[in-house]
Design a protein that fits this description.
Strand content: 5-15%
Structural class: alpha/beta
Strand order of the largest sheet: 2-1-3-4-5-11
Shape: elongated
Radius of gyration: 25 Å
Number of helices: 12
Largest sheet: 6 strands, parallel
Length: about 375
Amino acid sequence: MATSKPTLRDVAAAAGGSPMTASNALRGKTGVKESTRARVLAAAKKLDYRINLTASMLKSGRSNIIHVIVNEFDSPFYSKLTQALSNEIVARGLTPFIEQTRYSADAAAHALTSNPFSGQLFDGEILHATGLGTNLPLAKLNGGRPFVLVDACEETPTVDAVNFPNEEAERAAAQHLIDHGCRKIAIVGHAFTKRADLAHAQNAFLLRLRGACNALLDAGLPYDETTVFEAGSAEDGIAAGHAIAQQILATRGNADVGEGADPPFDGVCCANDFAAFGVIRGLADHGIRVPQDVQVIGFDGVTSGSYATPSLSTIEVDLNQLAKFALDMIAERVERRGEEDAEPLPPSRATIGYQLVERESTAPHLL
């Protein structure tokens, strides 16, 4: 004889609470104690309770599904980012739906407008904006759903945004090299841009360039076309490492310079970890040692650094905080959407924290 399916009342009774509390806990609503939410989720799992999504959507107008769109899946950075977002979504009793754009603005527009579920299924959407340019009308494409851009870097936000500490943290990275005695520092990331043109930077790599540029100029150190190398990937980083090494070797072999002359570069400040790993490899290809000859620091902190030799000093950003900020923004808009006569919220912006992690690549004493 077939048994009937468990109901919400069954879950509430097993958890020792009311059906309303059980419903709120299962749907990730705010105002439910974490201990209560844990009991409800445990009871639902034990009873094998499944939410009837169609009925739930018809009743509440919500699906409890969050759409996450990132540039790619197959890199440590995006693996960590999607993991942090997915963990936070699931912890709130919601379900993640994840897509990739492969850095294509057309793919991002398709995900927001032409996905079979767009405009119907998702309660909110999170898009990592780096590399998509500034001309994509994301706010219009989104159709008014709760929406958070990650690292949008707009001077005047048009939608909710959670940004990396691009300028502040890269300035700290460059200052770390300066504090370690570096006096000719290469910047690897965005193409060279004059300081005056950096005033209105609106993408992550330009903001990181501005941070490093200001640190160098404030310390009286050179910043010009000869000190900046464009690279965002490990392959481009290797090419930058080769170019830096060749300048160092040219100086060493120039008898006119004289013994004891300062090297053309003694530090490299990179806009991400992958470029930094490439730089270290490129320098090693020419016999330039890190950190004995040149110190190198990265940005992102998504790898432990333990598998590399030397291990990489880096700016480690707080991706778990990013996920919390993004889901808080979506939750606030979802709640207000159900309130009658609620005043529209202006776009909000938050910047996540970071810490500078010193490893072997900037610390000869650790070798």
